[in-house]
Structures are given as structure tokens and as C-alpha cells.
Design goal:
This protein is α+β, with helices and mostly antiparallel strands. The longest helix has 12 residues. It is built from two helices and eight strands, in the order E-H-E-E-E-E-H-E-E-E. It has an eight-stranded mixed β-sheet with strand order 2-3-4-1-5-8-7-6. Helices cover 19% and strands 42% of the residues. It has a single domain, classed as 2,3-Dihydroxybiphenyl 1,2-Dioxygenase, domain 1, CATH 3.10.180.
Length: 118
């Protein structure tokens, strides 16, 4: 095992509106609240849902893949460097994007995911 699912992230036009919806539906609590990124979770440290504001957001069309679903996993790790080596060995591709607290990759099928520091 390389890490734990930290959060499932939804792209959206209005992070506050979508987070408010899921807070009410799931009884989760807001633990991070920024204009472009909101995280909710069930305390104390359960899996989280995060909502990422995307400029010019186009909602998915289901069924079908004309506009695919826009969700990615954040995987919580103890060390970005150690986890990166492991996911690359398993077939992930680095997008050379992120910060000192997260890095972005594609899985072998091309889905994005992030490694994030615990």
C-alpha cells in the first residue's frame, strides 16, 4: 500500500454551492473553505469530499463520454518522493504539476489523481 484516499474531488463552477449541497445530503462538516476549494468530511478524520472551482466549467453528460465525469482522487501519503517513485513504477505518469504539498499524475488509463501530504 502506498497511501490512503484523502478525498474525492469534484470539479464545479461554484464550490460553495456544491459543498453546501453535499453537507446537507451527507451531514458532513466543512473543514477547508477557500473561494476555489472547499473540503467537507465526517469528523474526526474520515474520507473527505472536496469541491474545486473550475473556470468555464462544463458539466458532465451522462451517459456517454462526450463530456466525461470530472472527478479525481487525492491520495494521502507520508512522503511525496517515496510515493511518487512507487506510483511511477506501477505505470502512473507525472504531469510535473503541483506544489510542495501535492503532485499530479495520470493513472495508466489517463485519469488524473494527486498525491497529497498527510
Amino acid at each position: 500500500m502506498i497511501g490512503f484516499v484523502s478525498s474525492t474531488v469534484f470539479d464545479c463552477a461554484d464550490a460553495d454551492r456544491l459543498a453546501t449541497f453535499y453537507e446537507a445530503v451527507l451531514g458532513m462538516t466543512r473543514v477547508e473553505d477557500n473561494p476555489d476549494w472547499i473540503t467537507i468530511r465526517t469528523p474526526p478524520d474520515g474520507p473527505a469530499l472536496a469541491f474545486q472551482r473550475v473556470e468555464d466549467y462544463t458539466p458532465p453528460r451522462w451517459p456517454g463520454q462526450v463530456v466525461p465525469q470530472q472527478v479525481h482522487l487525492d491520495i494521502r501519503v507520508d512522503s511525496l518522493d517515496v510515493a511518487e517513485k512507487k506510483v511511477l513504477a506501477l505505470g502512473a505518469v507525472s504531469l510535473d504539476a503541483g506544489t510542495d504539498t501535492f503532485r499530479v499524475y495520470l493513472d495508466p488509463a489517463g485519469h488524473p489523481f494527486c498525491l497529497v501530504l498527510d
